[in-house]
């Protein structure tokens, strides 16, 4: 789960990570009020959406007067911001963060992520602040310092020294500031089951202090249960409404561009089904994993979500029953055709636990538009043909 | 022969008396797995599914001599359960539970390694040696005995792959579902050499997916150490970037972890890479004919 910059900064402040002063607002009027409260003389007006690249997209701008704050708030609030992370459809800006301008001497990059190879958290830092870190990693990898921290020993002085020297800091006070900051960030990461914390840019002020000018945080969904205060920060308007709706029923859904709706059990088989459709000349309309406890209700819900997409010309139900029993899925399909108006061909391939019973159930139901696939390849081929109107 | 588990393997179940634990333990017993007991705190002394229940793993191991534990406890207790098993002298923990926090697994795996315990999972279907021992939740009837080893991150693709192999007239030595979480126990790197060493395994099916670099590490190892034919499929060629595809670990971050880079690395290592899981069976037939 990701959170907004203004929320990340609240957490930074709690952990003693310095940030400029700022106020989140949802109207132009409040933006001006916030600017007055902060005092100025320079403010930054920042769009709050869950995507990077906001500055380049025109969602972060500097104001030198209250009039300019008003002007910019007017411009950014309600705009559809397109960045390299939002996709071409962009994201509607509903919240702004009005922030004090900062005294920037130099810009750095600092993050904590999980290193899947080392199986421990990794602190990454760079002197190339404000840049896309993936570009830095590709073009000038020598400018990135990486320090893995084994949670069994925790953040030690040497971790901090490796960072400080790696960043070329020679002033002892600045070194100390960096070490303290990294220690706080690591504690924040561990305490809250974070998946990723990124400060880009982290600035050094004229006084040699470090300050988080931006903040990005993601958390492990599996651990949200023990962090109710983090879970409360979830902003559902930032998520795909269909994905949110699907999740309520234990379905894992991701929308894609194609024409063939997919309903599959298991994430791997669901991806494999998409790949097979693609390989056979069709295009998948979605990823949908019905999970291990699929029943009539969840299958019906799955159909409903798939059919909301007007591009869908056929649906391929591909189930290999292990825990999921095929007869339950078959009943679900019949149930779904009663509740939802399924107006496209449905290709059904059911294999594994109770597959013969399921075949019998489907046969006896006599549903128009229903085509049986014998195996994965056969089912996918039939779905591709059906979507093409063949 | 087989790898890791066989008809003599003694297994206990942590989370034995829970709904999931009971259901699947019973299925495993029916399959022939030697489940010799289970652990549920405060139910020690009871009998469940005809087997003794213990309060702690230590007691269970001392009394039954079990070497493997199948873990079904709820997600928040997985870390605790794995560490308990490690200290009690269990040699292999098979973690079925889905949704364990990554931080807990990180600590638990490090602790297991310290105590010399291997782990499989979490969020996996488990391990099965065909017609001998099933430790997990897979439908046992599709795994016929034979000469193909199978390793997969995905549960249902394990079933799909095994089913195709058996429909082609071959069978399975051992199939291992290693799970799709960001931190998992045994992986390709450890299991491929076991199949290489197993005299009954003649061909290996390896199923991977987007995210992380375990398949890339596997490709390197195959090139250096594996002489048996390997057939591979990588799920998620059509997955969009930056989206988690069901499995917490199945995500393409930036340019890393794509299906394409994994497929190319495996091909370069001499592996037969299929573009659709529907082609696994045919590819195995071809590989077996060449031998």
In short:
The complex is a heterodimer of chains A (390) and B (291). In chain A, 37% of the residues lie in helices and 24% in strands.
Helix tally of chain A equals 13
Which two chains have the most extensive interface, and how many residues on each?
Answer: A-B, 54 and 60 residues
Q: What structural category arises from helix and sheet content of chain B?
A: alpha/beta
Strand content of chain B: 15-25%
In CATH, the topology of the largest domain in chain A is named D-amino Acid Aminotransferase, Chain A, domain 1
Q: How many independent structural domains of chain A?
A: 3
Q: Any idea what the CATH superfamily of the largest domain in chain B is called?
A: Succinyl-CoA synthetase domains
> Ranges of chain B with pLDDT <50 over ≥5 residues?
none
Mean pLDDT of chain A: 92
Name the overall outline of chain B: globular
Task: Please give the order of strands in the largest beta sheet of chain B.
Answer: 3-4-2-1-5-6-7
Determine the number of helices of chain B (DSSP H or I, runs of at least 4 residues).
9
Q: Which structural class matches the secondary elements of chain A? A: alpha+beta
Q: Stretches of chain A where pLDDT falls below 50 for ≥5 residues?
A: none
Strand content range of chain A = 15-25%
- Main pleated sheet of chain A: 6 strands, antiparallel
Radius of gyration of chain A: 26 Å
Tell me the number of structural domains of chain B. Answer: 2
């Amino acid at each position: 789960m990701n959170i907004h910059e203004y929320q990340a900064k609240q957490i930074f402040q709690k952990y003693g990570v310095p940030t400029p002063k700022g106020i989140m607002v949802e109207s132009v009027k409040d933006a001006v009020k916030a600017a007055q409260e902060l005092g100025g003389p320079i403010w930054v007006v920042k769009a709050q959406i869950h995507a990077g690249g906001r500055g380049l997209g025109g969602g972060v701008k500097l104001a030198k007067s209250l009039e300019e704050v008003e002007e910019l708030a007017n411009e950014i609030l309600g705009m559809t911001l397109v960045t390299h992370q939002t996709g071409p459809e962009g994201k509607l800006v509903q919240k702004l963060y009005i922030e004090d301008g900062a005294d920037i001497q130099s810009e750095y990059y600092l993050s904590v992520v999980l290193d899947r190879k080392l199986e421990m958290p990794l602190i990454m830092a760079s002197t190339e602040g404000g840049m896309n870190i993936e570009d830095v990693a590709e073009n000038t990898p020598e400018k990135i310092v990486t320090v893995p921290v084994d949670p069994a020993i925790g953040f030690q002085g040497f971790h901090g020294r490796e960072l400080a020297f790696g960043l070329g800091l020679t002033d002892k006070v600045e070194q100390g500031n960096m070490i303290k900051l990294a220690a706080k960030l690591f504690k924040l990461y561990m305490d809250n089951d974070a998946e990723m914390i990124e400060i880009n840019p982290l600035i050094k002020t004229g006084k040699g202090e470090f300050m988080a000018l931006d903040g990005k945080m993601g958390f492990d969904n599996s651990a949200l249960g023990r962090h109710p205060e983090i879970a409360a920060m979830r902003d559902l308007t930032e998520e795909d409404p269909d994905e949110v709706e699907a999740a309520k029923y234990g379905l894992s859904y991701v929308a894609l561009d194609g024409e063939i709706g997919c309903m599959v059990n298991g994430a791997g088989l669901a991806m494999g089904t998409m790949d097979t459709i693609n390989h056979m000349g069709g295009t998948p309309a979605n990823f949908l994993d019905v999970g291990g406890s699929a029943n009539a209700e969840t299958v019906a819900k799955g159909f409903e979500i798939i059919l909301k997409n007007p591009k869908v010309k056929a649906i391929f139900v591909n189930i290999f029953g292990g825990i999921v029993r095929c007869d339950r899925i078959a009943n679900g399909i019949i149930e779904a055709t009663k509740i939802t108006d399924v107006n496209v061909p449905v290709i059904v391939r059911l294999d594994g636990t109770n597959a013969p019973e399921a075949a019998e159930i489907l046969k006896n139901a006599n549903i128009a538009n229903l085509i049986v696939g014998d195996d994965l390849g056969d089912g996918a081929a039939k779905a591709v043909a059906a979507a093409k109107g063949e | 022969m087989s790898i890791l588990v066989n008809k003599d393997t003694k297994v206990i179940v942590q989370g034995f008396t829970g709904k999931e634990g009971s259901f699947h333990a019973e299925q495993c017993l029916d399959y022939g797995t030697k489940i010799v007991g289970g652990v549920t705190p405060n139910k020690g002394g009871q009998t469940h599914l005809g087997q003794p229940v213990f309060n702690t793993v230590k007691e269970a191991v001392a009394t039954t001599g079990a070497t493997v534990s199948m873990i079904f406890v709820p997600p928040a207790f997985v870390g605790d359960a794995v560490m308990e098993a490690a200290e009690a002298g269990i040699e292999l923990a098979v973690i079925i539970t889905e949704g364990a926090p990554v931080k807990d697994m990180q600590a638990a795996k490090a602790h297991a390694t310290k105590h010399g315990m291997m782990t499989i999972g979490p969020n996996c279907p488990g391990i099965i040696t065909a017609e001998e021992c099933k430790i997990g939740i897979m439908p046992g009837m599709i795994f016929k005995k034979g000469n193909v080893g199978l390793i997969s991150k995905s549960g249902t693709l394990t079933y799909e792959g095994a089913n195709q192999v058996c429909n082609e007239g071959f069978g399975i030595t051992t199939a291992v579902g290693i799970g799709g979480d960001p931190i998992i126990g045994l992986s390709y790197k450890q299991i491929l050499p076991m199949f290489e060493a197993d005299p009954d395994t003649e061909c290996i099916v390896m199923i991977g997916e987007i995210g992380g670099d375990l398949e890339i590490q596997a490709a390197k190892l195959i090139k250096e150490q594996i002489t048996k034919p390997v057939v591979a499929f990588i799920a998620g060629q059509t997955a969009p970037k930056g989206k988690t595809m069901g499995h917490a670990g199945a995500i393409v971050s930036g340019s890393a972890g794509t299906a394409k880079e994994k497929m190319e690395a495996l091909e370069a290592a001499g592996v037969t890479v299929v573009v659709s899981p529907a082609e696994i069976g045919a590819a195995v037939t071809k590989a077996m004919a060449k031998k």
